[in-house]
TrEMBL record:
This is TEX9 protein. The gene is Tex9. It comes from the Eukaryota. The lineage of its organism: Eukaryota, Metazoa, Chordata, Craniata, Vertebrata. Keywords: Coiled coil. Residues 78-147 form a coiled coil. PANTHER family: TESTIS-EXPRESSED PROTEIN 9 (PTHR23313:SF0), TSEC1-RELATED (PTHR23313).
Length: 149
C-alpha cells in the first residue's frame, strides 16, 4: 500500500483507474497522433506505456485491474468506432442507391430531351414548308383578284 500512495488511483466498479486514464478516448488519441504525424512530429506514446511509468509503484493485481479497465475502455471505443463505421456504410449504401436512381433518371430524361428536340426540328421544317405554301397561295389569290377586277 505504501507503493500505491504515490499514484492517484480512483476506484470504479472495483477496478483501479489512474487519473491519467480518466476520459481516455481511442478516437481522440488517434486524432492527436495523426495531427502530430501530419506536422512531422514524432508522436509521444506515453498513453501506451502507463504501466512502465508506474509499474514499480503498483502491485500486480492493481496492474491487472488497470489493464482490464484500459481494455474495457478500448473495447468500448472500438465498439463506438465499429458502430460509426457501420452507420457510415449504411449511409454510403443509401447514397449509392440514390446516385444510381438519379443516373437512371438522368439517362431517361436525356432520351426524352433528344426525342423532343428531334420532334421540334421536324415541326420547324413543317412550319417553314407551310409558311412557304401559304405565301405562294396568298400571291396566287392576289393575282386572281387582279384578274377578276
Amino acid at each position: 500500500s505504501s507503493r500505491i500512495r504515490n499514484v492517484e488511483v480512483q476506484s470504479a466498479d472495483g477496478v483501479a483507474v489512474l487519473e491519467d486514464c480518466i476520459g481516455f478516448s481511442l478516437t481522440k488519441t488517434i486524432s492527436k497522433v495523426e495531427e502530430k504525424l501530419k506536422k512531422g512530429v514524432s508522436p509521444d506514446c506515453q498513453d501506451d506505456d502507463i504501466i512502465s511509468r508506474v509499474g514499480n509503484e503498483m502491485g500486480e493485481e492493481a496492474q491487472i485491474r488497470l489493464l482490464k479497465a484500459k481494455l474495457r475502455v478500448t473495447q468500448e471505443d472500438l465498439a463506438n468506432v465499429v458502430f460509426e463505421c457501420r452507420k457510415k456504410e449504411d449511409e454510403n449504401q443509401n447514397l449509392e442507391t440514390r446516385l444510381k436512381d438519379t443516373e437512371e433518371e438522368n439517362t431517361r430524361l436525356q432520351r426524352t430531351i433528344s426525342v423532343q428536340q428531334s420532334q421540334t426540328e421536324k415541326y420547324k421544317i413543317l412550319s417553314q414548308e407551310a409558311n412557304k405554301k401559304s405565301e405562294g397561295l396568298q400571291q396566287e389569290v392576289m393575282a386572281l383578284e387582279k384578274v377578276l377586277q
